[in-house]
Structures are given as structure tokens and as C-alpha cells.
Amino acid sequence: VIQTPTGRAYTRNGHFSLDAAGRLVNGQGQAVLGEGGEIRLGPGTVEIQANGTIMQGGRRVDRLIIVDFAPNAALTRSGNGAINAAAAPTPVASPSLTQGSLETSNVNAVIELGAMQRGFRAYEANTNAIRAADQTLGRLIDSTTA
Questions:
Q1: CA distance between the termini of the chain
Q2: Phi and psi dihedrals of 11, rounded to 5?
Q3: φ, ψ (nearest 5 deg) of residue 56
Q4: CA 83 – CA 6 distance, rounded (Å)
Q5: Beta partners for 91?
Q6: Is the dihedral of CA 110, 116, 122, 124 positive or negative?
Q7: Tens of pLDDT along 64-110?
Q8: Which residues pair with 7 in a beta bridge?
Q9: What is this structure's pTM?
Q10: How far apart are CA 132 and CA 61, in angstroms?
Q11: Alpha-carbon distances of 10 from 68, 76, 110, rounded to whole Å
Q12: 58 and 47 in contact (C-beta within 8 Å)?
């Protein structure tokens, strides 16, 4: 959950950093919210546990708010990677986070483009084979009816 100028919004982008005031922010400078509000960190090593708990210097600082939406929830993009929802989300009881990892696409565009081209060529070859068989059958029918 992030704080935007228009209120709370949501993001799937977990690339966070600290601003000059020590707030945990997203790439657009919007504060990431924890159970206690804006998350503020001091200098030192930060550990984000799998359940979203933020630890620093051996003490608990806060816990990230991780939410989920109903399968047919009306979600709208509001720019800069933020998502708005008409209905309230449901907190995730047991989230599974991995510190230092970012979710990326599981598709390699170059490989998929090559596969698409091979599929199109196979489609064209099959179309030509069917056309040739149809023409041959047409000539056979014409020669037997004449």
C-alpha cells in the first residue's frame, strides 16, 4: 500500500528506496505504508522478513501492508504504476516476500517472437498444402465429369 496525493493506492512494484527524510518510498517518491503509517528507517541494515515485518538493528520497525483483491474487483491504473480500487482490499494473512528480489516477466520477448514467427510460417505452409490439395481435387472432379 502506498500513499499518493489523492489517498491510498496499491502497487505491485517492490522497488523501494529511502528518501532524504528516511521514509521508505517507491520510485515516484510516494510513501510505502506499514501498519503504523509511513515507514521511517534510520541508518543501518534493514531486513524485510517473509511475512513483511521490517527489522532494523534487531528491532521491529513496522510491517508492510500486503493486500489482495477479489477476483472481479474493479481496479484502475492511475499512472506511475499505482493502482486504485473501488472496493476495499483484503489483508493477506500470510504473505510470502523475498527481500532483494523483484518480480519480473516470465516471458522472454525475443524467444516468444521467434516462436510466433515459426508458428506463422507453419500456418502458411499448411494453408498452401490445403490449397494445393483442394486444387488437385478440383481438377480430378473436373476431369471425371467431362
A1: 78
A2: -145, 150
A3: -145, 125
A4: 12
A5: 67
A6: negative
A7: 999 998 888 888 888 777 888 888 888 888 888 888 877 777 888 89
A8: 4
A9: 0.66
A10: 72
A11: 10, 10, 31
A12: no
* Residues across the chain: 146
Grid cell locating 107: 516471458
CA 103/CA 12 separation, integer angstroms: 8
Q: Which amino acid is at 86?
A: A
Give the other-Cβ count within 10 Å of 3's Cβ: 17
pLDDT category of residue 121 using cuts at 50, 70 and 90: very high
**Cβ–Cβ under 8 Å, residues 65 and 90:** no
C-alpha grid cell, residue 70: 477479489
Question: Residue 30, SS3?
Answer: coil
How far is CA 129 from each of CA 90, 120, 124, 135, 141, rounded to the nearest angstrom? 55, 14, 9, 10, 18
The torsion region of residue 57 among left (phi > 0), alpha (psi -120 to 50) and beta comes to left
Number of Cβ atoms within 10 Å of the Cβ of 62: 21
